[in-house]
Amino acid sequence: MEAALSKTRYIWLKNPGTLTAKQQATLATLKERNLKTARTYQIRLTLQELFQTRSRQEGEAFLKKWYFWATHSRLPPIVAAAKTIKNHWDGVLNWFHSGLPTGLVEGFNSLLQAAKARARGYRSDANFITIAYLIGGKLNFTLPT
């Protein structure tokens, strides 16, 4: 079984549209063998379809179906991922209102955490919020010459 998965890591990390012809043939062969890895790959691809739904209501209905499928898959990493999504359910569905990519939000959060660590705490929430605006606003404080 492990020999069949040898040198296939990048096939599972890519979306089907970006696979080479050789990788697509390998993937088709592996899917026929009903491997847990192939089931996991299909669950991952299905979750990506959430972002093609049009509204929060439609997205929530989709996510409920996906969650049921994932939690009943008997694949521990998928069950754990589904539970994480369930814990952040509203945050995931807020994407329909904000449309912000998670990478952008994570990047900004990283900047704020670094500022918080550098300062070793702020005396008040107002000071921390002020620093957040200064970091996020990308203001230019150079003096005119």
From TrEMBL:
**Residues of the Transposase IS204/IS1001/IS1096/IS1165 DDE domain:** 3-131
Domain of life of the native organism: Bacteria
What is the protein name given in its UniProt record? ISL3 family transposase ISAtc2
